[in-house]
């Protein structure tokens, strides 16, 4: 089954204006730490709006190995961690998804020790976890490297600590939060990440009995409690998926109403679409309407930063859009060292992009033409879909397992608003 999915491609015949309505899925980057957090719950956690993604499936397999009972009924996932009986997960299961590292903080919080495989690099570069490990050490965890594994033990239990992150890492902030909620004493995280997914995690943990304040700001304070119980929670909408569909509307000069989204979380992204010349209207916090009837032009410069800056995860998507906008767009990538691999594939469709280290310069062209291309990573793959919608002729996108990590049936969503796209 997996091999079959891996050999599948997305076939896009470009040139159709998109028009209609798409309900945005729950956020991948929220659901993964939330599923990790269920490890801490002695009781049943119910998560609504869980997107059906291969990364979420990988998280279910980790929960399963730990002995947590996990059930899915459409978009509702129930996890019962009462019977958790194991703190070891086979290497192969851990390696299925890079973000599995976020389970380490939760397992340490629940069990006080854990053997976990060391993550390697990924499509975006080296991806070190030194901030996570240094924070754990400050919390009384001894970390010993052993042939590709980390043996983590806290002989005196996990201790609250005052931690100053060298960079506001999303994953490290989440891992510290998960280890700290049931630690002895209080923890302060300085220079914490401020992304909406951090706020979502804090909201869920609080419903489970955790004492947390300050999430969404640079300082998070956590008072350790004895244990957490289960709770019911709705995963926040995926802001990057919202941005993806906005790019699809813009590049086809179409119009879309995106529902079940959250405009507050999109404040760094919406103004860019307005700058390009799109009309963007927001309704009742959860609906965004975009149309691209007026002539569009380059946004000039896109610089990625931590939240509330422009998100690195939307960089590839906007790059696909700017390939056909009149004028020059300069991209500056400040979060990951190696996040322009999609530029080469966009080039195969006729895009003019020049990459030098952290900067990419896009010269808008009149038209793209369909070709066989390969997804290089999750958002890079989605960027090829965006470009394919506008390219003349047929674009065949391979390696779509990257896209399935983070998009729930992207072809069905786009087909429902008029795109000529299928999986084959
Ligand atoms: C998360 C998101 C990812 C997003 C990224 C930045 C999830 C599952 N993934 O990834 O989609 O692109 O935030 O918004 O939520 N770093 C270190 N040492 C560390 C940790 C990070 O040097 O211990 C560096 C990274 O190499 C990178 C930067 O810090 O250059 C930011 O990484 P981080 O915020 O940790 O990203 P992730 O949590 O991995």
Q: How would you characterize this protein structure?
A:
The chain is of the alpha+beta class and 424 residues long. The strands form six sheets. It has a four-stranded mixed sheet with strand order 21-22-1-23. Strands 2-14-16-15 form a four-stranded mixed sheet, with helices on one face. Strands 4-5-3-13 form a four-stranded mixed sheet, covered by helices on one side. It is elongated, with a radius of gyration of 21 Å. The mean pLDDT is 95. Helices cover 32% and strands 24% of the residues. The chain starts with a helix and ends with a strand. The site of uridine-diphosphate-N-acetylglucosamine has 19 residues, from helix 2, helix 6 and helix 7.
Structure characteristics:
four-stranded mixed β-sheet, alpha+beta, binds uridine-diphosphate-N-acetylglucosamine, 424 residues, 32% helix, 15 helices
**How far apart are the termini?**
14 Å
Largest sheet: 4 strands, mixed
The number of strands is: 23
What shape does the CA trace take? Answer: elongated
Mean pLDDT: 95
How many helices?
15
Structural class: alpha+beta
* Largest beta sheet: strand ordering: 21-22-1-23
Helix content: 25-40%
Low-confidence stretches: none
Unique bound compounds: uridine-diphosphate-N-acetylglucosamine
Q: Please report which band the strand proportion falls in: under 5%, 5-15%, 15-25%, 25-35%, 35-45% or over 45%.
A: 15-25%
- The value of Rg in angstroms is 21 Å
């Amino acid at each position: 089954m997996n091999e079959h999915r891996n050999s599948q491609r997305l076939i896009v015949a470009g040139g159709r204006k998109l028009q209609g309505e798409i309900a945005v899925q729950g956020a991948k980057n929220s659901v993964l730490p939330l599923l990790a957090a269920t490890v801490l719950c002695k009781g049943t956690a119910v998560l609504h709006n869980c997107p059906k993604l291969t990364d979420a499936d990988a998280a279910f397999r980790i929960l399963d190995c730990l002995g947590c009972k996990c059930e899915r009924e459409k978009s509702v996932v129930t996890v019962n961690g009462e019977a958790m009986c194991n703190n070891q997960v086979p290497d192969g299961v851990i390696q299925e998804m890079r973000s599995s590292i976020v389970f380490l903080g939760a397992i340490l919080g629940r069990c006080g020790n854990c053997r976990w495989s060391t993550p390697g690099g990924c499509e975006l570069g080296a991806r070190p976890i030194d901030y996570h490990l240094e924070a754990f050490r400050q919390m009384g965890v001894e970390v010993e490297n052993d042939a590709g594994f980390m043996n983590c033990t806290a002989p005196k239990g996990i201790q609250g600590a005052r931690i100053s992150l060298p960079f506001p890492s999303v994953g490290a902030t989440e891992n510290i939060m998960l280890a700290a909620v049931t630690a002895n004493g209080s923890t302060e995280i300085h220079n914490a990440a401020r992304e909406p997914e951090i706020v979502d995690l804090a909201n869920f943990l609080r419903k489970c009995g955790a004492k947390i304040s300050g999430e969404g700001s640079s300082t998070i304070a956590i008072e350790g409690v004895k244990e957490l119980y289960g709770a019911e929670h709705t995963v926040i909408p995926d802001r990057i998926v919202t941005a993806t569909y906005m790019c699809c509307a813009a590049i086809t000069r179409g119009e879309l109403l995106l529902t079940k989204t959250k405009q507050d979380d999109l404040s760094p992204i919406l103004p860019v679409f307005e700058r390009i010349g799109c009309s963007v209207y927001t309704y009742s916090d959860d609906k965004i309407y975009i149309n691209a009837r007026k002539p569009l032009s380059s946004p000039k410069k896109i610089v990625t930063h931590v939240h509330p800056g422009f998100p690195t995860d939307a960089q590839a998507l906007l790059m696909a859009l700017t390939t056909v906008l009149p004028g020059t767009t300069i991209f500056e990538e400040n979060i990951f060292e190696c996040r322009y691999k999609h530029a080469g594939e966009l080039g195969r469709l006729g895009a003019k992009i020049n990459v030098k280290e952290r900067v990419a310069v896009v010269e808008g062209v009149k038209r793209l033409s369909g070709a066989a291309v390969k997804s290089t990573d999750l958002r890079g793959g989605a960027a090829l879909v965006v470009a394919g919608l506008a390219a003349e002729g047929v674009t065949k996108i391979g390696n779509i397992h990257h896209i399935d990590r983070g998009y729930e049936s992207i072809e069905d969503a786009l087909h429902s608003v008029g795109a000529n796209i299928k999986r084959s």
